[in-house]
Amino acid sequence: MRLLSSLALCGLCAAGPALAEFERVTDKSAFLQIVAGKTLSRPLIKLEVTSDGRIDGTGLRQRVTGGWGWDQGFFCRDLYWGDEALGYNCQTVSYDGTKLRFQSDRGTGDYADFRLR
Prior knowledge:
Layout: H1 2-8, E1 23-25, H2 28-35, E2 40-42, E3 45-49, E4 54-59, E5 62-71, E6 74-81, E7 84-95, E8 99-103, H3 104-107, E9 111-116
Antiparallel strand pairs: 1-7, 2-3, 2-9, 3-4, 4-5, 5-6, 6-7, 7-8, 8-9
């Protein structure tokens, strides 16, 4: 079951090819302006990232919770999917005007694109 859960979480980390050009967001206040009052969504995942450092939502019918901060131009989060700790990870954030892209491992790992609603 743990392997199945881990495989399902790949949906939180991977996405298809980009159609629009993304620009890197390196400033916390610019990031907050983009996400203010919005829900970040992709198939089976809906998240809210709040200005007070919380992450809350659902992913594959499990509760997603966590915290986040900004460190030297990176979005750093500590995330839980149900009772499973996904761990701490600093990510690049890019924006194309309609979607946010989070790329793990300081921009060297997998990425996930989220629509803003």
